[in-house]
Amino acid sequence: MKNFEISVLDLAPVKQGKSIHDSFQDSLSLANFTENLNYNRFWLAEHHNMESIASSATSVLIGFIANGTKKIRVGSGGIMLPNHSSLVIAEQFGTLESLFPGRIDLGLGRAPGTDGLTAQALGRNPAIINEQFPRQILELQKYFSKENSNALVRAIPGEGLDIPLYILGSSTDSAWLAAELGLPYAFAGHFAPEQMEMAFNIYREHFEPSKQLDKPYILACVNGVAAETTEEAHKLSTTLFQAFINIVRNDRKPFSPPVDDMDDVWSPMEKSMVLQKLRYTFIGDQSEIAEKLKSFQEKFNVDELMINSHIYDHQKRLDSYDIIRKAKDSLFKA
């Protein structure tokens, strides 16, 4: 089992009884806390029209987090590129990299990060997405290149900067693209686990070296809910379960506090659907988390594991990341 980095995925979750300002302050607090624990990177994800998620202006929020931290890499997990002009994203991330040199990542996805009606409001054309997304990635690479200095359209800031690109995915389509372009690959195992193993196999088998990367680099995102005891961890995880029930029900309300018994909340069919989607959710005390991390890594052999943790109480969320760090470190003690 090879060693692996651990990182953080944050959605700036909005909690019942709390403001969006509170969400942003909690995100900064989490970034500071995990930076001190030597987490590798802190990514924020673009979502729209959801009362429970406040990371819609992702580039702005990345700047806020990077400004409040010192060394942790900060980036997007991801920017939903067909929602935007490639030039605007190049300029935004060129600005971020110029402000925070050597600390900015640009993770890119093709999904809308929202519902169909909101996707229309964002100006997306679903008929051309599969063609548009790869083309936009090539446009970004051109705008970031030194060779673009003689072009009629230039990204300033952005031109000539080393901003690593990552391809995000929740299906095998993105694996083929990441392999073809020779870019690192991040998979959304925290909500779409069904094709993860197949996607990793495709990516590894078909990877073509590039200027950015000479061999495959895989980042897997999972859910983690850790606590001092198993019982507490399972209770804390009911916030995550309720959030997924709300997705099933198309109810976008803010995140709910934990409950004593999920059977009072979900139907048997909903339970089955949610547990399938949350297959890679590590719940437990430190020893249980360590065993689950070990089992996952022995199966998937990833380079990096990104942890998403939906816990209602902010201090308990911090504690969870602390326990996960200790659990991971325990696997590789000398």
TrEMBL record:
Segments forming a coiled coil: none
Luciferase-like domain: residues covered: 19-298
A single cellular component GO annotation: cytosol
UniProt-listed Pfam families: Bac_luciferase
An example molecular function term from Gene Ontology annotations: oxidoreductase activity, acting on paired donors, with incorporation or reduction of molecular oxygen
Family to which this protein belongs: To bacterial alkanal monooxygenase alpha and beta chains.
Protein name (record): Luciferase-like monooxygenase
Species of the source: Chryseobacterium glaciei
